[in-house]
Design goal:
Length: 369
């Protein structure tokens, strides 16, 4: 009996063990398959999830397990932005960001089949659009340069500024010496290998960045490293002395200018628009003064016509430029309360700067000379 029970026990034990081993094996199989299928092909080295950015470009670095993917697709808010054929162990790229939330999906494919995907959520802040001024809960700025990055230093040999980064500029002579500046080799800048996308492809590059003089604004000794107190007009006035002087003589200040937020309207790096504006002038002004796009406000007081062009026609006074809000208003400050330009006292005198008075028909029709 005892031996039977014993035998029974040991029989049971064996079958349990076999089952356990079987389960364990199946478990291992499933685990290793899913691990292979969804985890280890792409490793995100940078950037972390839920970070906050100021401008329109985020640098990303991933590792791709060799031979396990033949295409990496990058989507931002479900729009395809980049395709990469992985060749190296590290793949680095930059993705354009929209204002607000950006869901970035990085998908690895092999023979058209998805083999792995990582996603990250990035918030691009904006002073211009009030609902995007503050990041949603949970998002925070990650300071890349606050940590040692031995992993990155393996290929990006220099992570600390070198002599080549110490180019300084003189705003007085900048325009005259522009041809000399063109001789600057961007790739000599430490910042170039990772940040070139920020300025290299934009038509309007802000002066200092033309010579990769990043350190004229970003101080490597600052805490956090390279930190700039933003918005800070003193930063701008360091070079734009003339702006500071102009300001001191004016009576009326435009609200966003009065609050010292140059960065609401200007991008300190580069832009699609002249004057390094974050949007072309007309769109920029309409972000806050939506109804003025109709042009109604210009003519309402003077003529029965119900609209005046505010863009899309040549500016009669500024050759080669388009008529915009800035043709009649100084975006910064002025001696008149509505910031009208052209050095006139009344709105009516202003009309006459561009229009020829027609005999006996002083107001209608207007003709532009
Ligand atoms: C194995 C070498 C290697 C490593 C390691 C590496 N990079 Fe790169 N990285 C490159 C190369 C090469 C380029 C230039 C890419 C090109 O020419 O297409 C580059 C470019 C970049 C760019 C600019 C991409 C663009 O197109 O705008 C960023 C940002 C970047 N790297 C960040 C990083 C970060 C962050 C790390 C560390 C987590 C890192 N890299 C580690 C090789 C590497
Ligand atoms: C190894 C690549 C690499 C190099 C080289 C590099 N950066 Fe960065 N930097 C990054 C990445 C990645 C970020 C964070 C995401 C982004 O801005 O794309 C960043 C962020 C920053 C920031 C925002 C604050 C922060 O720490 O996140 C500043 C400012 C900055 N870099 C300035 C510079 C300047 C100036 C240089 C040259 C002296 C430089 N960087 C060189 C990769 C690099
Ligand atoms: C005229 C001043 C100025 C110059 C020159 C300048 N920057 Fe900046 N940069 C700023 C300001 C202002 C910010 C916003 C700081 C903030 O709010 O954290 C900034 C932010 C950044 C950021 C953070 C990006 C983000 O979206 O959060 C990076 C990266 C950066 N600068 C890189 C550079 C590089 C590289 C250069 C040289 C090509 C450069 N900067 C030259 C003023 C400047
Ligand atoms: C290190 C010096 C320096 C600093 C700091 C600087 N700028 Fe500039 N900025 C320049 C130079 C140089 C030019 C090109 C001038 C030229 O072409 O004659 C320029 C041009 C501009 C222009 C275009 C002017 C034009 O007539 O086309 C604007 C707008 C501007 N800067 C705004 C700013 C703002 C806003 C800041 C602060 C965030 C700033 N700058 C900080 C040097 C600087
Ligand atoms: C409300 C938006 C806005 C703000 C805020 C703003 N600017 Fe401007 N700025 C503009 C526009 C628009 C132009 C182009 C005007 C034109 O088309 O004639 C301009 C032109 C400039 C120019 C070149 C033309 C000139 O007037 O000499 C400089 C330099 C400049 N801004 C610097 C600054 C500085 C410095 C600050 C912060 C103290 C600032 N801006 C704040 C909208 C703005
Ligand atoms: C970030 C928002 C913002 C932007 C961008 C902006 N403004 Fe303004 N603007 C204001 C605020 C706020 C006031 C003050 C509130 C008021 O009096 O209506 C103001 C006032 C004005 C006034 C005087 C209004 C009055 O009744 O006294 C004029 C004119 C004006 N802005 C023109 C412009 C032009 C031209 C542009 C584009 C170059 C522009 N604004 C861009 C926010 C903005
Ligand atoms: C052709 C000249 C001209 C253009 C272009 C123009 N404005 Fe005006 N704007 C005026 C005049 C004139 C006034 C009235 C000034 C006064 O009453 O002293 C005015 C007044 C304003 C006011 C004050 C509020 C009001 O209704 O009186 C704002 C804000 C304003 N303009 C914004 C804009 C914006 C934004 C644009 C571009 C979409 C623009 N303006 C284009 C001439 C112009
Ligand atoms: C900076 C130059 C400028 C100023 C200042 C200006 N205008 Fe004009 N105006 C124009 C231009 C450009 C046109 C378009 C002409 C065309 O379409 O060929 C125009 C067109 C008009 C029209 C015809 C609109 C239509 O229905 O097509 C009227 C009316 C008019 N302006 C009235 C005024 C009045 C009133 C003022 C003063 C408050 C004024 N303008 C100030 C440049 C200006």
């Amino acid at each position: 009996m005892i031996s039977f029970v014993r035998g029974g026990v040991s029989f049971l034990n064996i079958s349990m063990r076999v089952r356990f081993i079987c389960y364990a094996f199946i478990f291992f199989l499933i685990f290793s398959l899913t691990a292979e299928g969804s985890q280890s092909i792409i490793t995100l080295n940078y950037s972390p999830d839920m970070t906050v950015m100021e401008f329109d470009l985020l640098g990303i670095s991933i590792s791709v397990r060799q031979g396990s993917a033949d295409l990496i697709e990058i989507r931002v808010n479900n729009r395809k932005k980049l395709n990469i054929i992985p060749r190296r162990k590290f793949e680095c790229f930059s993705v354009p960001l929209e204002v607000g939330r950006n869901q970035i999906n990085i998908t690895a494919k092999k023979e058209d089949r998805i083999v792995d995907e990582v996603a990250l959520d990035v918030f691009r802040r904006s002073d211009l659009v009030s609902k995007y001024e503050k990041p949603p809960a949970g998002f925070q700025k990650d300071y890349f340069h606050m940590k040692d990055r031995p992993q990155c230093a393996a290929c990006h040999h220099v992570l600390e500024p070198t002599e080549a980064d110490k180019n300084t500029i003189d705003i007085e002579t900048f325009a005259a010496e522009i041809s000399e500046y063109k001789a600057v080799v961007p790739s000599e800048s430490t910042c170039y290998s990772c940040h070139r996308g920020m300025i290299a492809y934009q038509p309007f590059i802000h002066g200092p960045n033309f010579v990769w003089s990043c350190l004229s604004c970003h101080d490597p000794q600052a805490e956090p490293k390279y930190f700039i107190k933003y918005p800070d007009p003193e930063l701008c006035y360091k070079c734009h002395v003339e702006q500071k002087q102009k300001r001191s003589t004016k009576k009326y200040f435009h609200a966003p200018f009065a609050t010292n937020r140059c960065g609401i309207c200007h991008n300190p790096h580069a832009s699609e628009s002249p004057y390094s504006l974050v949007e072309p002038t007309w769109l920029l002004c309409l972000t806050c003064h939506t109804e003025k796009g109709s042009g109604r406000h210009i003519v309402a007081r003077y003529v029965s016509s119900n609209r005046h062009p505010t863009h899309g026609v040549p500016d009669p006074l500024r050759k080669g430029r388009e008529l915009t809000c800035a043709s009649c208003h100084n975006p910064h400050a002025s001696d008149s309360p509505k910031f009208t330009t052209l050095g006139v006292e009344s709105g009516f005198d202003m009309c006459m700067k561009c229009h020829i008075k027609v005999e006996r028909q002083p107001l209608v029709p207007y003709q532009v000379p």
